[in-house]
Every structure is written in C-alpha cells, then in structure tokens.
Amino acid sequence: MTGNSNKTRAVILAALMVFSVFAGTVAFTGSAAAQAEYAGGAVEYENSSDVWIIEVPVQDGSIDNTTVTSNNVELTDDGDEINDEIDFDASQNASTDGTVVLVLQDNERYASDDLEVEFSGDLEDLGGPHEVAFAAESYDEDLTQDIDSYQGTTIAFYNDTGDEITDYTIENDDYFQNYGSGDNSSVFYVDTDNLETEEYELDDTTYNLTVRDLGLSIDLDETNVTTDEEIEGTVEARASSRPITIELLEDGDAVDGETIDNIQLNGQGEYDFSIDASDLDTGDYTVEVTDDNSFVSSESSTVTVSEAADEEASFENNVVTDQRGDILEFTVEMTSTDTATVVFGSESDGVNATATVIDDDDDGEVTVYADTFNFNNSSADGQVFALDDDSDDEIETRSVHSDPLENLIDAGDYDLDVRAGDDYTDDSDDVATVTLEQRSTDAFRTWTAPESVGTPSDLEDINEGLDEGEITQSSDVANGDVVIHQLEASGFEGAFDARDQEDITDEFFTATGNFTDLTVEEADPGANQDADVLQLDSENATVIADGENDTYFIAYDSDAVTYENGNSIEDDTALDAEFTVINDDDSTVPDYTSEDLDDDENETISATFEVTEPTITVDTPYNVSNAEGQTVSGTTSLAPGTELTLRVRSDDGVSPSFLKTASPVVQEDRTWSAEMDFSEQAVGDTYEIVVNGGNADEVDEDGAVVESVGTATPEPDTDTPEPDTDTPEPDTDTPEPDTDTPEPDTETPTSTPGFGVVVALTALLAAALLAIRRD
C-alpha cells in the first residue's frame, strides 16, 4: 500500500509540475504586449523640415523601427513596386514605435493618386495594401496666411512639434467638419474634391481656405491627322507653372510610350504639346491631361489617325519664265513629307545646282528662289538658292556642282526637277521647264518731286508719291527739287540683289563702271568744250528697286549734286542722262549686252531734261471783290506736289487790318490757287500778296478790294476831244433812174422818216439829259 501510495503521490506531483509549467506558459502569453495594427490615414506630404515623407500611424501596439526595411515594406504605384523611391536608412531613423515614417529619396515628392503600402515579415501585423493619400500642399496647423487651393487638391495640416491634432474645424454657412490626426500621428489631410468652390473658415484662426476651380482644358489643333503628321494641341488652366501629365488614350486606356510627363504649364497657364503619329495604328484616339497636384483631368475630343499617302514632291507650276540674270521664283509642294530636294540644270547644260528644303511651318509647300546671276560667280556655292528672309521654312543644304561660268548664263530652256527626301540622286517626282529669255533695257524716264518731300528711301515712298501726285513725270526740274530717273531693264535682279531688298544703292553703283554705267552730263556744253559730268555715287544718290517689275529708281537732289569739277548745276541747264550696258567680252565681269550687237557696241538708253530756275508768279488781276470765294492763283516751275505759303496782308493805314493765309499745293500742270474770304473787307482796301515755297525766291504783288474783279476803278476823263476838220468829198456818181413802177403802199407809216421809233426816242432822251446836265 505504501508503495502504491508513493507511486500515486509521484504521479500527482509530476502532473502538478506539468500543469504548473503549462499554467506559467499561459500566464506569460496572456501578459504579452497587444498586437500592433494600422491606424489608418496614411499620407504623403512635406513636413515641417521640408522633407517629403509617407506617414503610416500604428495603433494598439508598437513596432521596432529597425524592421522598417525593404524586406518588410512594399510601396506600389498602380500595382508597380517602387521601393527605390524610399530611403530606408533615413526611414528607420524617422520611424518610432508608434509610427512608420517612409522618407522619400532625394527629398523629392512622388505624385500619384494610386500609391499603396503593404507590410510583411516582421511588420505583417500592419497588413495592407493600404491607400496612401498624396497631399500636394502642406501647412502648419498654426497658420500665418490664407490658403488658396484648386478643387481636387489634397491639403495636409501638421503639428510641427509632433503632437496629436484634435478638434480642428473647417466650416462655412453650408459646411462643417471636425478633423484630427489620431493616435501616433501629427498630421491630417483634407481632400478638397469634397468641398465646393467657396471660402471656408479654418479652426479658430483668422485665416480662410478658398477653394477654386482650376479650369483645366485641352484642345486639339486638328481632329484628323495622318501617320506622317503629329497630334498637336494646347493645354490651358487658370494657374501657371503647375506640373501636368499628358497621355494618349485609345478606348480609354493609355497608349504605351505616348505619355508626356515631368512638364508644367508656362507663365500664362498654357502648354503646347505634340505627339508623333508615325508609330500609331490608324483609328480614333483622345488626349488626356492631368494636373499632378489635384489629379483633376480633362480629355480632348476625338482625333482620327489615318494612313499617310506616299511621300511625294511636285511643282506648283511646271513652267518658269524669266530673263537671264534675274532671280527665278518657284514653289515646291510636298505630300506626306516635309523634305524635298530640287535640281537645276545638268552637267550637259554647264550649270548644275541642288538644294534641300524643309517645310518647317507644315503648310505643305516651300517657295524657293534661284539666282541665275550667281552661276558665273566663283563664290556662288550656296548662293544660287534662297528663301525669303522672313520665311518659316528652311534650306538644309545647297550646292553648285558645275564650274563657275565665264559669262552670264545663256538664254534657253533648262530642267528643274524635284524629289521627296534629301538625296538629289534619287529619281525625280516632278520636272518643270525653266525658260531664260534674253534680257533687255526697255525705258528710261525722268520724274521730279518737291524739295520738301526729299529723296525716297523705299518703294513705299515711291508708290505713295505717285498716288498722291508728289512724284510726276517731267522733263523740267526746278533747281532744288528732286530728280528721279526711272530705269526699266530686265536681267539685273541678281546683280543688284534686288529680290529681297529695296535700297540697292551700293549694289547699283558697284556695278557702275563694270558692266553698267550711268552718266548725267551737260546736253549743250558750247563749242569746243567738254560737257561737265555730274558726280553721282552712293553718297549723294539713292537707288530703289522694284525687282519684281524689273524697275529701278535713281533719285538725287538737284542742288545737292555737283559736277566732277565741283561746280553746281546752273539754272536753265539742259542735261542728258544715259544708262549704258557695257559690251566687253574680254572682261572678267558678265556681259549683259545682246548677242546681236557688234563687239564694240554698247547698249544705251537716254533721257534729256532741263534744270530750270525755280520761280513763282501770281496771276493778274491782283484785285479781289469784297465777297467770299475769291481766288488768288498763279504758276510756278516748282515740282507738282510742292506746298506753297500764301499770305495776303493789308497795307499800312487800312482799318481794320487783316492777314489771310493759305497753303496751296502745286498741281500737275504747275498751277496753284487758293480761295479766300474778303466779305468783311471794304472796297478800296489795299493789300500785298506774298508767295514762297521750295527753292524759289519770294514773290510779292499789290492788290485792292474792288466792287467787281475785271473792271478797274474809273479815273476822271480830262482830255478835250480834237475837232473833226476833214471835209467830206462830194458824191459825183449820178444815180441810175429807177424805171420800175412802185406798187402803192397801203400800210400807214408808223415811224419817223429816216429813223426808227426807238432811235428817235433815244435821241430825245439824250437831249433831255444833256439839258439837265447843263442846268
């Protein structure tokens, strides 16, 4: 019994020990720390230290900050892992036992509304994935300013000491919300997408939050493009410098590789974008822009992409005609390409040049110029082809493949071909014929302009002067007025560089003496005397080109130029102006003369004009009537368009005195006139007429106010008439007898014999008046 009792006691004791150990284990387990859990409200924001972080608060437990590693934490953007954006060393230092703090790399924000964080391993109790709000704007809860924000933006409010925020209110008449950070957090956020575009009071501060509409929009330039074009458009918003992302969408999904990011609106709140359509399938697309702060987005209308036609280049016109030496103009049209290459001439022609042009303004065409003068220029490489100075297009390459000509290019027909692309050896897509005609010198005329107008500085001055009658054709030029020679001659557009500039003074006088010459000399120097020649050059003359019409204007002041001996032009001097195209086959300069001329025969054209004395005259009579609309007129040798100064001033002693002025303009026939009002002047008032203008001497004439212009004031007749002492010769002719028997007159006579009744009455009246006068 004793043995059994001992065994039983031993079993009981062993059991007690087992239960004791189990009980201790149970007691130990029950006394362990509570399990840590995610507290909610994960947010990315910029904290008080200007560091971008993601705060994940923890509740009901604690974590070991050393476990904040890439093994236990995964950050994703729309499902894609982006742990490379986290600085885990800095994150461990920033995290506490109640908060996981993920510090972003390089202190740069990661803007996305698809962020999620998930925990595993040592931190698996925190679970996940959990959404992370992106707060583009962050403010200390203790505000020092009003806040303006655009609807959709998430705003973070933090406590800079790390304390919990409680009972923070945002309200207005129609809205109230109480916010707080919660345990183990010092930040809360407000999604303004849930707020109306209104003003809100912020807690107990004196500051307000104003929510505004960003007004984000996107517009396309074209809604139909081809695969060789670009989808282009403009993004606009009410805010400037905001970061945006642009995506191309097909059926609502983003097209791979067609996202434009890391961009921002300019200072005017705009952004112009382009998307290359060359790699796109044909079909319908839209373009979406997203504001990277608020994630507000806007989608464009539909753009349809269609297959581009084959690349091709052609000419607008297939016949180009001009004169040799001039500048050709032609337009290249392009289809499904912005690059084309033109070729002028060939090796067999002795002239061959190429140029590759680019349609930079995307209008499908490029206007090109070819200078035929430069084929004889050894430095012409690159100078044959050109574009307008203000062209939006571009010449990529240009070359002359032939040797420089010894003379001006021959007249004749030349090929001009074009192909798409930049290889001039490719087969041509189109061919035009260039016909170069013989050049000619067609006309040389003399015009004049008033001294006050001066020499023209551009073609606009010429055209305005012609339209307003200030430049008139004439062979008489008053000394001091402007002389303008009009030369009509083709073939000089290249030599004078007259295509894209109007003032060609230097180019014109550089040619003078080489292949052209301009001489103005005395027409009649006198017997045994050489004619004096005017010294004309770029210092005292201006040459204006109308290259398109092969017309050139050489202008100079007649009293500002001198002869080569230094003397000025005298009044009433006839001058010969002669333009010469020099025939010199042996010269190194091009020969512009016709092949029909003899070797020693120049091509000349001339015009004779006279520099006259500048005069002004006043028409007679100098008198006027005391009435309105009285005309004072005259003539002048000054150029039409000259404005004269006319003054009519009363003589001393006339009361009341008067002064009348006018500014008559010289007409085309060199007359002038002005109407004046003399209705307030008395008959007998006398005055002086004074006229001046231009380079003419002042002229003055005396006049008077009379009752009727054209009838002089009668003077008393004091002359005594001479008596008539001639004795009349007697009439010795015997009249022939009248043998006709008169018919009896049955009429009763009513007049005095020998006088009519009217004559008799007039005589009686005269006698009566004489008697009265004698009395």
Description:
It is a single chain. This protein is mainly β and 775 residues long. Helix content is 9%, strand content 39%. The chain contains five helices and 54 strands. A hairpin with a 2-residue loop joins strand 14 and strand 15. The model is unreliable at 1-33 and 713-775 (pLDDT under 50).
Mean pLDDT across all amino acids: 87
Number of strands: 54
**N-C termini distance:** 210 Å
The largest sheet is:
6 strands, mixed
Query: Helical segment tally?
Result: 5
> Over all CA atoms, what is the radius of gyration?
53 Å
Uncertain runs: 1-33, 713-775
Class from secondary-structure proportions: mainly beta
Shape: elongated
Portion of residues in beta strands equals 35-45%
**Helical percent range?**
under 10%
Protein traits:
775 residues, six-stranded mixed sheet, disordered N terminus, 5 helices, disordered C terminus, mainly beta, 39% strand, single chain
